[in-house]
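@channel sequence for tomorrow's demo:
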Amino acid sequence: MLIKRNIMIFFRDKANVFFSLLAVLIIIVLYALFLGGVMEDSFAEIPGISPDSKEKLDVIAAGLILSGMAAVTAVTASQGALGVAVEDKNKAAKDFLTSPVSRSKTVLSYIAGSAACSAVMTFAALILSVGYIIVLGGNLPSLRETLMLITAFILSVLCGNSFVYFLSTFIKSASAFTAFSTVLGTLIGFIMGIYIPIGQLPEGVGWVIKCFPMSHAASMFKIAIIGDELTSAFPDENMRSEIYRIFGVNFNYGEFTSDFWFSALVLALFTFIFFGLSILSEKRKS
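structure tokens (generated this afternoon):
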């Protein structure tokens, strides 16, 4: 019942749902206004691109930008849904404390409710992204790509939810949470290297992006959605590796280069870390 309550409160608040999607809307607007065109022109000037792939530059550009939508939504939707927990600290905290429901069940209801809301919103963003790319001329995901998308979807929702929940344990008022949500929703696209390719940023900023766990969610979606298109467009392995580095498809850590399954491991690991830290934070407050 508590989980259902939290889900219904989130979806009934239209303003909350809208601001949860603010970062996604920013990505769509920037893509439509100039990011897509600028990226297509950049690819067209690369000498190593396959001649047959020049007709699909719009597909590649859309795939690299819009694939980050699902990863961003996994964070911002969790953020919006967890606003219920912050509001309850001030409005309904005493009611819960005097009820027969244990504190642990109440906390789990917030986590499960926000995860469910995040899953619905993230799935919608993923379907929109893949659908738009197919309309542009991209290929339907193969069985392997579909399994990769499912893996990226599950891990991004879990890690995004645990990350936001951990941060929310330090916020006591609804106004502070609103300010936090606004800042995070605005910056998340930059932190994940979606607005500006990581290869065009200073090295220090690039390391921030590479070390932010949710950046790996965006990397996984890029590999699953547009990896085969990039392989066809850039048959030369060295050139393709450089494109992957510049656009954050893979991340370089010295001599080591991440791949899909390394990013999956990072998300799984940080999901446990953030949930563990959240439990410690809740115990400290208790």
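heads up for whoever presents: The first strand starts at residue 252 and ends at 253.
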